[in-house]
Structures are given as C-alpha cells and as structure tokens.
TrEMBL record:
One Pfam family this sequence matches: Dus
Residues given in the record as FMN binding sites: 17-19, 71, 140, 170, 225-226
Organism, scientific name: Leptospira meyeri
Active-site residues (renumbered): 101 (proton donor)
GO molecular function, one term: flavin adenine dinucleotide binding
Catalytic activity: a 5,6-dihydrouridine in tRNA + NADP(+) = a uridine in tRNA + NADPH + H(+); a 5,6-dihydrouridine in tRNA + NAD(+) = a uridine in tRNA + NADH + H(+)
Protein name: tRNA-dihydrouridine synthase
C-alpha cells in the first residue's frame, strides 16, 4: 500500500498512461482486473487554457476509476500552472506531470522528455501546480535525454525538492524511445536513494514479472504499458494464456459496449477507435485471419457483434505475444490493422 499525498493506493500494478489506449472505457476494465489506480491519457496544458473541448473531454471518468490521476504536459511554466487549475476543477485525486514523452513534436518543444533538459523548470512546474491546486503532484520521467546525459538522480532530487509526491520511471532515455531494453538497475538505484515512492516502468510482460521486479528492485509499484493492450488479465494472477475464448470474447464485447457509451455518435467512430484494442485481444488465440480482416473493415456495430459471436475457438493460447519496436508511443497508437 502506497500513500500519495492523502491518497491511498492499494495493489502492485497499474495501467501506464498511453494516448489512445488509457481512456475511460479501458481504465474501467483494467481497474476491475486489478490495476491499482487510473491514469488519464496525457493532455496538453496549452489546449486546456484554450478551452479545447476534445482535450477537456479526455478528463472524463467514472467514480469507479478512482484513484484517478490526470496527466498533463507543457513547456511553459505559467501555462502549465494555470491549466492545472482547470484540470483540478474536474476533481482528480492527483495531477501527474509528463516528463517522459519522446515524440519529437512534444519533446523537441520542451514538453514531455524535453523537461529532462530543464529539470529546474520541471521542479518549478510541480511546485506551482501543487500550490495552485492543493492536490498531490507526481511525475513520470525517463533516465535522461540520451546515454550521454543520464541525469535521473539529479532529476529526482530536484523534483523531491519541489514537493513531488511520487515519481514513475521509464527505464529508457528519450533517444531510445521504445527500442532496446529498459534499465531496471537504474530504476532500482533511483529507488534506493529516493525519499518518495518510486514506480517502475518498462518491458514488463506479465503479472508475475511485475511482482518479481517489484521485489528485486524495491519499487513501490509497477506500471505496465504496451503489454497491457488487449490484455487486462495482466493485472491479475491468471495470465491471458490460460483464459478460454468465451471469456476473452466476453471482455471484448464488454469493452466495445463501454466504448459505444463513452463515444456516442451517429457513425462508426467508437468501433473504429476500438479496432486497436480488438487486434490485441485476439492475438495468438487462433482467431481466423479471414474473419479478422473482415471485422477490421466492418463499420456497422451490430454486424461486427454478430460476426464476432459466430467465431468458435476451442484451443487455448499456443504462444505468448511479442511486442517489439512497434509504432506506439505517448502521442498516438498506430493500428497494425
């Protein structure tokens, strides 16, 4: 159990914030399966101040998702601090500052991982958000901009001095993006020296691996990102490989229904958004390729459901999923369909 400000966090694993993935429908499902709390997708502070409806909409959540962490990003101190007040009006439990997004259009403009090059500014942002909102403030960082600037210990020290309540650490540099391997030894080093709770993130493929890393490196909690897409079972002790098709199909339909309710429209908007989840749910299940291709082109929800319901799969998983160097990042998820 971890305390963030006055917020009590129970559990060992949590869904990492991912744009296009960690929206309210999937947060609801992963919370039910065991994710310790809920991070929103990251939201631009500049867009919040402009009153952008789509950005504000990303802060929608249900009470069942609590504790709820709103993640924001920005490069200008005044903008970030003033926008945090708008975020706070939606009653989150915690505000999280993104210092880890590696996408060029974010990091090269000083936001996200760009703040790793200006940790004093990041510290001022955290102090400003905390004073403006009265809420606990956390941060998500990387180890540094590149291998020649591994400033993670300095970053943690500055953030602690600014009153940060917890820090989540992705064990890669900005330059690595999602290539190579996460350095959990560095994460462990941070935990050994930190005064605040530390959450570890990077290359966690299962619940058992998360528990192993939690124990070995002493982190307070483990974030799971890409491996959690289409796999809420990763937050429980029963791996997806042991779940039969009927149960998987039930969760797929539950998720789709939540998407339809959360993104109401007169067209196939919710169904199109759901495709990136769907292809992960059916990975390595023996799902027929022909029907998969058909389902990824269907634009009528009832037709999609009828076709899915017709699929019968007797076998269980024969292999585990491998996710390497895919086009997924903190800005967007590009469907492999």
């Amino acid at each position: 159990m971890v305390t963030i400000g006055g917020v009590t966090i129970k559990g060992d694993v949590v869904l990492s914030p991912m744009a296009g993935i960690s929206d309210s429908p999937y947060r609801q499902i992963t919370r039910r399966f065991g994710s310790s709390f809920a991070y929103t997708e990251f939201v631009s502070t500049e867009q919040l101040l402009m009153g952008n409806t789509k950005s504000l909409d990303m802060f929608r959540y249900l009470e069942t998702e609590r504790p709820i962490f709103f993640q924001i990003f920005g490069s200008d101190l005044e903008t970030v601090v003033n926008a945090s007040e708008i975020a706070a009006s939606k009653k989150p439990d915690v505000i999280d500052l993104n210092m880890g997004c590696s996408v060029a259009k974010v990091s090269h403009h000083g936001s996200g991982a760009g703040l790793l090059r200006n940790v004093r500014l990041a510290g001022a942002m955290i102090e400003g958000i905390r004073k403006k909102t009265g809420l606990p403030v956390t941060a998500k960082i990387r180890l540094g901009w590149d291998s020649n600037s591994l400033n993670y210990l300095e970053t943690v020290k500055v953030l602690e001095g600014s009153g940060v309540s917890a820090i989540s650490v992705h064990g890669r540099t900005k330059a690595m993006a999602y290539t190579g391997f996460a350095d959990w030894n560095a994460i462990g080093e941070i935990k050994s020296k930190a005064k605040v709770p530390i959450f570890g993130n990077g290359d966690v493929a299962s619940f058992s691996e998360a528990m192993f890393k939690k124990k070995k490196y002493g982190v307070d909690l483990v974030l799971i990102g890409r491996r959690a897409i289409g796999n809420p079972w990763i937050f429980s002790e029963t791996p997806k490989e042991k779940i039969d098709w009927v149960q998987i199909k039930g969760v797929i339909l539950e998720h789709l229904n939540l998407m339809l309710n959360f993104y109401p429209s007169d067209d196939d908007y919710a169904l199109v958004l759901f495709r990136k989840h769907f292809i992960r749910y059916i990975e390595n299940t023996g799902f027929p390729d022909g029907i998969k291709r058909e389902l990824l082109t269907i634009t009528n929800v009832n037709q999609f459901i009828d076709k899915l319901e017709s699929v019968k799969i007797d076998s269980k998983f024969l292999e585990t999923s491998e996710i390497e160097n895919e086009s997924i990042n903190c800005e967007t998820f590009v469907s492999l369909a």
